[in-house]
Specification:
- The first copy, chain A, has 2 domains: 281 residues, 3-Layer(aba) Sandwich (Aminopeptidase), CATH 3.40.630.10; 123 residues, Alpha-Beta Plaits (2-Layer Sandwich).
- Chain A contains 13 helices and 18 strands.
- In chain A, strands 1, 2, 3, 6, 7, 8, 15, 16 and 17 form a 9-stranded mixed β-sheet that branches. In chain A, strands 11-13-9-14 form a 4-stranded antiparallel β-sheet. In chain A, strands 4-5-18 form a 3-stranded antiparallel β-sheet.
- In chain A, helix 1 runs antiparallel to helix 3, helix 4 packs parallel to helix 12 and helix 11 crosses helix 13.
- The interface between A and B is large, with 76 and 76 residues.
């Protein structure tokens, strides 16, 4: 009979091969949420996640049915006086195409060179599994956790998180927590443990200009009929100046600059703008506001992008249509303390004023996400930093995410709690691409970091 | 036994019911050149056309095989000392969708209210049939024609005239003619017999700007990565001013203004800019160079139009891509004496200079057509006018066509001959749309006009 270790660290060390076997099992489930034919796999992955929570010792484990894929819930709430942490993650994955680019098949996980290769390895099965296994290590050796812990794991992160967003709005009271823990991001660079303290917000818009009721022939009408593309490009050319400054009046009013500590810490990051341009952007030159560093531009500045200009004729060959209507798909990334609703109104007002009166102007706001930033000095961020310092031997970089993760500001606002983002992936892990991988070292160390975080979060209460 | 009339007019009067029956037969053939499944119908229509030329008394009637649909040729060359006229038309038609919008099916011709409804009724089967029947009326009653006459009828007009363009270039010597006769246009208004004396030219271009090698995520790169749409709309916004003047240096240098007679005649046309805007353009306002009348703008001025802006994301919903590449499909209509090749070089030079250096700029010239204008004082245009005056009781309006009919300038240059364009359609005949029709009065009068034209063209030799 095997002797059960009495320390979580010894237990983890003993269980490593088993944990890896279990992760491989998890990764075998092709839970691709974007593809309807994988619906049974979504249910399977949800049930598998629930079983692993039960096996870890969590209580009240159950699936929460939704209009889409089920949520998985579990909790351990026997630490009165200690804070409550909500662990969030997702069991759904991206599609795996192009399949031919994979060295080993995406749903037949393979360990090569101390990394596990599979779709979902780092996004997010491998990372959420560190949370589950951290709880298991503590519960199996200590019989208890240092904090109260809830798990809320969704199956629609790659398709917009519809179900969890609705559930969170309706059940915030039952989910009451002091902090949310998310491991769904990456280290800034190998050897640079990283915490994300903010995400940009988003407004996604569609505008349309209509010049005539029907498409017209440019031979018969060209020279006298309105061409909405002509008005559209003129309008769009007035949204930013050539240096990348957005020209909409008041658009920067609410922008809160990062504090000096943050800026100073970014200057210490291993980041070379020229290397980033060559290797990541693969462009001849970078663009954007020259008075800000690249990291400031992508993390702390609002931006405006044109994504596509639907309308008219876009096929091969020559069709000489003057289209009745031309559209633009646009978005802005927003930063604290910009309000998506207010910014959307400013954009609409500005563009409406630019639209020539002979065109019908339509503005549609398709979606929004709040920007959010959590101070590094927050107790839970400090707990995360201390845990990382202990396990990795160095304090984390506090960075921001230029993207918009709608669930993060929603957790913050519905639960009135900070979101602690400890990223265990690496920049080259191939999220959403072929040959996605997760470093086994980061997997095991991640479990240690989460154990340490739960302890430190309790100690600082 | 029926008595054969000895005048072409009496013959026409006697044969009207039969000519209509034959036209109905011609219109029953669904010779849609854009749809490959109609290939057998193309052959059938070509053979039917050849048979009708033979029946009319033309000689050397045969199909000329091409890489696409056959050409139909026939001639009568026994009028030495008289000019040679080449009659051009096409036996192919546009697709008929939307089928549901047709009152009677497109290939089951129906006469309602003295009009024949069918796809191809006016474009071009009904109109070219007036030429064939004019020859028949003369040959069956006089045993001869007043001029030498060739027919060259193609089956690819609706798909770019590829075969006839190549044939014309290679066989111009065999086709030697003094004038080309085309009835493939419309009267300016009901009761206003019309001759087109010019067509605009065309250059069709595609430009592309590339900012990076791959599509990028606007969250991770937005603010620092080049967005080719941003550069594209800025570039395109500099092609014209807000009044519609093209800003490319030298672009207007070769423009030959219409002569005073032409301008004076257009002022007499039943044309009201406001009515045209409301009923034809269906727009809140017209655009374009304010110092020119609408008819000048669409007939005698070069124009530049954006047809579509391919690239990025144009589907429903929100995708936050910064595309690697963005394109524009553009064309210019040209007027005499602009050279398509020279104008294309000017456009390319101007745009290349505007493209920011951090983007790769590509320019592709997809197609060109020469502009052309024939003086109303040309003897064959005068012959057409005299014929119209005699049959319709009023002289024709000499107008221009804002569109580009590539075969017209090619006839002019390869045969060194003017193209006489006598349009027998009406503006509301529904070319390319549902319920296409051809007025029976214009069909019968058209035959008379063509007979008279052939006589007058000979008399003036």
């Amino acid at each position: 009979m095997e002797i059960m270790p009495t320390s979580s660290a010894a237990y983890l060390k003993q269980q490593r091969p088993l944990f890896l076997q279990e992760l491989i099992e998890f990764l075998r489930i092709p839970s691709i949420s974007t593809l309807p034919e994988h619906r049974p796999d979504m249910q399977h992955a949800a049930e598998w996640t629930a079983e692993s929570l039960k096996a870890a010792g969590l209580e009240k484990v159950h699936l929460i049915p939704t209009s889409g894929n089920p949520l998985v819930y579990g909790e351990w709430m026997h630490a009165p006086g200690s804070p409550t942490i909500l662990s969030y993650g997702h069991y759904d994955v991206q599609p795996a195409d192009p399949l031919a680019a994979w060295i080993s098949p995406p749903f037949e996980p393979e360990v090569r060179d101390e990394k596990i290769y599979a779709r979902g390895a780092t996004d997010n099965k491998g990372q959420i599994f560190t949370h589950i296994k951290a709880a298991e290590c503590l519960l199996r050796t200590q019989g208890q956790l240092p904090v109260n812990l809830r798990f809320l794991i969704e199956g629609e992160e790659e398709v917009g998180s519809t179900a969890i967003i609705q559930y969170l709005a309706e059940h915030a009271g039952e989910l009451r927590s002091d902090a949310v823990l998310v491991s769904d991001s990456s280290m800034f660079a190998p050897g640079v443990p990283t915490m994300d303290i903010g995400v940009r917000g988003l407004i996604y818009m569609e505008i349309e200009l209509e010049g005539s009721e029907n498409d017209l022939h440019s031979g018969l009408f060209g020279g006298a009929a309105p061409n909405p593309f002509e008005a559209l490009v003129r309008l769009l050319s007035k949204l930013k100046d050539e240096q990348g400054h957005i020209l909409i009046p008041g658009i920067y009013d609410a922008v809160r600059p990062p504090d000096d500590d943050e800026l100073a810490s970014w200057r210490r990051l291993p980041f070379n703008e020229n290397e980033w341009r060559e290797q990541n952007v693969k462009a001849l030159a970078l663009t954007g506001e020259p008075e800000f560093s690249v990291l400031e531009r992508i993390w702390t500045r609002p931006t405006l992008e044109i994504h596509g200009l639907p309308g008219g004729f876009t096929g091969p060959g020559a069709k000489t249509v003057i289209p009745a209507r031309a559209s633009a798909k646009l978005s802005m990334r927003l930063v604290p303390d910009q309000s998506p609703a207010r910014i959307a109104r400013q954009v609409e007002t500005y563009m409406r004023a630019l639209a020539p009166p002979q065109y019908k102007f339509t503005f549609r706001l398709l979606s929004t996400a709040e920007p959010v930033v959590f101070p590094p000095s927050d107790r839970f961020n400090r707990a995360g930093a201390a845990a990382i310092d202990k396990i990795f031997g160095r304090l984390p970089a506090f960075v921001r995410c230029g993207g918009s993760i709608p669930i993060v500001p929603l957790f913050a606002s519905h639960l009135n709690a900070p979101v602690v983002m400890i990223g265990l992936g690496l920049p080259d892990d191939g999220l959403h691409g072929p040959n996605e991988k997760f470093s086994l070292m980061n997997f095991y160390r991640g479990i240690e970091v989460i154990i340490e975080f739960l302890r430190t979060a309790a100690a600082r209460a």
